[in-house]
TrEMBL record:
GO MF terms held by the record: trace-amine receptor activity
Any Pfam family hit: 7tm_1
Cross-referenced InterPro entries: GPCR_Rhodpsn, GPCR_Rhodpsn_7TM, TAAR
Lineage start: Eukaryota, Metazoa, Chordata, Craniata, Vertebrata
Protein name: G-protein coupled receptors family 1 profile domain-containing protein
Transmembrane segments: 30-53, 65-88, 94-119, 140-167, 187-209, 246-271, 283-305
Length: 331
């Protein structure tokens, strides 16, 4: 009975889609145009960040290595995940095979894991830099952060392969037409919730609360003890506050895009409703949109990105010694 009901529902959906296309293709075309715009912003915006940090030597800092890793994962989301996800949303069904479904889930899980833990690594790096600057200058180097980023990608690959393999998503590739369902057991689901959501999100929230407290304490100390160097101290205060503000915005937007998805996952596991699973697929779009929002945040709040983007888009990047240009100076 359940199988028959699913088939009837699927046939009804396909007939409705075909009928709506016959009546008017304008809404259908509009959806694909919107999807194409989001994909374009995601890929081009994050590609500009990747090129900027890789090319300009002034931007080779530990913090920017983590931003580079995050931008690269967001770029891959725009290339590999977003197109398939938007096609599935617009068509209201899975148009590809079982093997491609397993590959799509693997890539999606890999990039999700990397993005979430990249942001938490940024929180750890910023906290160490503010709370213990002497330890940061001695221990936190480009090589250390680069190895940490590589480890993040490697651990993500190993973890997500194990997650999907031991739940039969690679070995049992039979699936109903029009569906790309992910099967995860209760134990693995609880582990995944803790590893990918609870642990990194708790790290972000706790550390950024401490970061803002430290930044405020530094500002008060500078005002109290360094009145003879007022202009320099004011600049330092503003720099600290701006850095804390930008990273706070980055984390806040990230959590706004991430939390609804995992809340719906918990509700879907408890309620077991098909309509809730459909809502879950739509809310997943909000999380993927974060990959398009990040470059906009950088463009609005990072002068170095604004200047490097101008150099890249005007093809000055091909000039001699362009990698040595001062992109940190505000003109």
């Amino acid at each position: 009975k359940i199988t028959g009901l699913v088939n009837i529902t699927f046939n009804y959906i396909m007939k409705t889609i075909n009928y709506s296309r016959d009546l008017s293709s304008a809404p259908y075309t509009f959806l694909y145009l919107c999807a194409a715009c989001v994909i374009f912003i995601t890929t081009c915006g994050n590609l500009l960040i990747v090129i900027s940090i890789c090319h300009f030597k002034q931007l080779h800092t530990p913090t920017n290595v983590l931003i580079l890793s995050l931008a690269f994962s967001d770029f891959l989301v725009g290339i590999f995940v977003m197109p398939i996800h938007f096609i599935m949303l617009v068509e209201s069904c899975w148009l590809f095979g079982a093997l491609f479904c397993a590959l799509y889930n693997m890539i999606g899980f890999q990039l999700t894991f990397v993005s979430i833990h990249n942001v938490s690594l940024v929180a750890v790096e910023r906290y160490i830099a503010l709370s213990n600057p002497f330890l940061y200058s001695k221990k936190v180097s480009l090589n250390v952060i680069f190895i940490a980023s590589l480890m993040n990608w490697a651990v993500s690959l190993f973890y997500n392969f194990a997650l999907l393999y031991f739940n039969g998503n690679f070995t049992e590739l039979e699936m109903r037409p029009g569906e790309c369902l992910l099967v995860i057991g209760e134990v693995w689901s609880a582990v995944d919730l803790f590893v990918v959501f609870i642990l990194p999100c708790a790290t972000m929230v706790i550390l950024y609360i401490k970061i803002f407290a430290i930044a405020k304490r530094h500002a008060v100390a500078i005002r109290a003890n360094n009145k003879d160097r007022r202009s320099k101290d004011v600049h330092a205060i503003r720099s600290e506050r701006k850095a804390a503000k930008v990273f706070g915005i980055l984390v806040s937007v990230f959590l706004i895009c991430l939390v609804p998805y995992y809340v719906c996952i918990l509700m879907a596991d408890l309620i077991k409703s098909q309509s809730l699973y459909n809502v879950l697929s739509n809310i997943l779009t909000l999380f993927y949109l974060n990959s398009a929002i990040n470059p906009i945040i950088y463009a609005l709040f990072y002068p170095w990105f604004q200047k490097s983007m101008k150099i890249i888009l005007t093809f000055q990047i091909f000039g001699s010694d362009s990698s040595l240009k001062n992109v940190l100076r505000v003109t």
